[in-house]
Write a structure and sequence with these properties.
Structural class: mainly alpha
Order of helices and strands: HHHHHH
Number of strands: 0
Distance between the termini: 25 Å
Radius of gyration: 18 Å
Shape: elongated
């Protein structure tokens, strides 16, 4: 469950601009603020089932965006490669290279 939550948080970061304000609110409350379905339903004066359905549809939509655009996949791959590069470069011997790596990481 924690792995799914972490993945959803990353996907939400990448694709939240493509969601409606209501979808963003539900996802933020559920995944970022860790509120229950009941708490979210109470805030919006809707049923728990309505919140559940909206969150599941939004998750499916976000996964569809990721399947097409692969932003999170490329981010993970880039991060892994940067970590490997950082490990292979001796920090004392290559200060300029280390500086470039840090700049690239800050872009993400």
């Amino acid at each position: 469950m924690l792995e799914k939550t972490t993945r959803m948080n990353y996907l939400f970061d990448f694709y939240q601009a493509l969601l409606t304000p209501k979808q963003r609110s539900y996802m933020e409350m559920y995944y970022l603020e860790d509120l229950s379905l009941g708490e979210i339903a109470e805030s919006f004066d809707v049923s728990r089932q309505a919140v559940y359905d909206n969150i599941r549809r939004t998750e499916t939509m976000i996964e569809s965006y990721e399947k097409k655009l692969n932003l999170y996949g490329r981010f993970k791959e880039r991060s892994t490669l940067l970590d490997e590069l950082e490990e292979t470069i001796d920090s004392d011997a290559q200060p300029h290279a280390q500086n470039l790596i840090m700049q690239i990481k800050e872009l993400d």
